[in-house]
Structures are given as structure tokens and as C-alpha cells.
Amino acid sequence: MTASNGTPTIAQVTLIGVFVTGLVTAQLTASKILAFSIPLSLPLTGDELLMPGAALAYALTYFASDCYTELYGKRAGQVVVNVAFAMNFVVLALVWSTAAAPVASNSVVGAAAFENVLMPASYVVLGSLLAYLVSQNWDVWFFHRIREATGREKLWLRNILSTGTSQAIDTVIFVSVAFLIAPALFGGFVMSDEAIIGLIIGQYLLKLAIAVVDTPVVYAVVRAARSRAGMGAGSAVAAE
Question: Where are the domains of the chain?
């Protein structure tokens, strides 16, 4: 779905922009652990859900990738996912080079404060990159397997199932590597099993809820993009 002169459409650029924005934000906010009180007590988590600060931003990337893959095809979705993976290293290089540069005496933000806030821990980076590479590629692949099996009309099904399973993969890999496996292997603070399970459950529940809630929004975005381009609801926009 490109303009008649071959340039990308507003929908295409916007979805890529949302995807990259969510990804970069997730990379920079992953190390903060959030705690939300809930009105009931759940097994293993109690009345408080714990999750990395990146949970909401990262969930946004699945919304964008599902819309993009539905509109432009599996191959286009995989290109966006893997190019964005490479851009993670650009973000890290820019942040780390800024942290290494000398700070002015009148800087509002000191060197230590900048590093503490914007420089993610190496274990968090490792877990985040590995989880992203596996789960996002799974999301695109599984989304289209469901589409091939059930037809193009059941967008709600492929959105929920592909996002639900890929976010389970992402959550387990990220939390396990960042807060358990890497610190245990290379030295560092290792969270207890209970804390790890709590992080996994809390993050996944939020992501799953977003996957269900954002389904009508995915429908609206896809319908609007197809309508603007003059495509039918079942039309394939890109080669798969």
C-alpha cells in the first residue's frame, strides 16, 4: 500500500514511527520496576503486580507490528522488526557516547544522574534484545500462519493469539535473562524465584489485557488505511 508514485503512505510511516517510538522508549525504561496495587489477591503475586517499566511501551510495538503486518504482508513486517532490532544498537551507541562525553560545569543534569536514568544495565539490554528478536519475529510469523489457516476476515483472532503468545515468549525471556540468568552467570543481584515469577505474571497480564483491549483499535486502523487506499477488507497489500 504505497502512493501511486511509489512513496510510502501516511499510514505506513505512522505505524513504523509508532513501532520505533515504543521500542526506543521500552529500551530506556526497562530497568525501573513498577508496582501496581490490585483489588484482589492472586496466587504467587498477592495484591500487587510487579512489572518492568518498559511493559506498556513494549506492548505498543505489538499493536503497531500487527497492524503493519496485516496491511503490508509478512515479509514487510519482518523487515521492520529486524531493521528496528539493528536500530537498538544505534540508540545504545548514542546514549553511551553521550554518557562518555565530558559534562559542562553548568549542566542541569550531572553525569551520574544521566547515567543512572538513561543508561540501562547491561543485563537489561541483553535480556531486552534477545526477547525482542525472538518474540517479534514469532509474532509476525504466527500472525500469518493463523491468517493462512482461518482466512483474512478473523483479524481479531490473529491479533490476540499472535500477540498473546509472542508476549508470553518476550516476558519469560526478558525477565529470566535480565534478572536471573545473566546476573547468576556474570555476577550481580539475582532476584528470588518468587520475585521473578511475580515480574513475569505482572508483565504478562498487562500485555495480554492490552492485546485484548487494542483489538478494536487494530480493526479501526486497518480499515481506515485500506479505505484511504481504496482496498477491500480482504485485499492483500503486499506479497507474503
Answer: 10-229
CB 150 within 8 A of CB 158: yes
Q: What contacts 202, CB < 8 A, 6 or more positions away?
A: 36, 45, 49, 50, 51, 55
How many distinct helices (H) and strands (E) make up the chain?
9, 2
Neighbour-count burial of 63, counting CB atoms closer than 10 A to its CB (0-12 exposed, 13-18 middle, 19+ buried): buried
Q: Is 233's pLDDT higher than 60?
A: no
Query: How would CATH label the architecture of 10-229?
Result: Orthogonal Bundle (1.10)
Tens of pLDDT, residue by residue over 139-149, are 999 998 998 88
Find the radius of gyration of the CA atoms of the chain: 19
Beta-carbon contacts of 112 under 8 Å, excluding residues fewer than 6 positions away, are: none
Q: Give the C-alpha separation, 151 to 155, whole Å.
A: 9
Summarize pLDDT for 169-215 with one digit per residue, the tens. Answer: 988 998 888 888 888 887 777 778 888 888 888 878 887 888 888 88
Q: Which amino acid is at 1?
A: M
Q: Are 77 and 12 in contact (CB under 8 A)?
A: no
Give residue-wise pLDDT tens across range 114-133: 887 777 666 777 888 899 89
DSSP letter at 177 equals I
Measuring CA to CA, which residue among 204, 233, 74, 209 is closest to residue 139? 74
- Report how far residue 6's alpha carbon sits from residue 4's, in angstroms, rounded to the nearest whole number: 5
235, pLDDT greater than 60: no
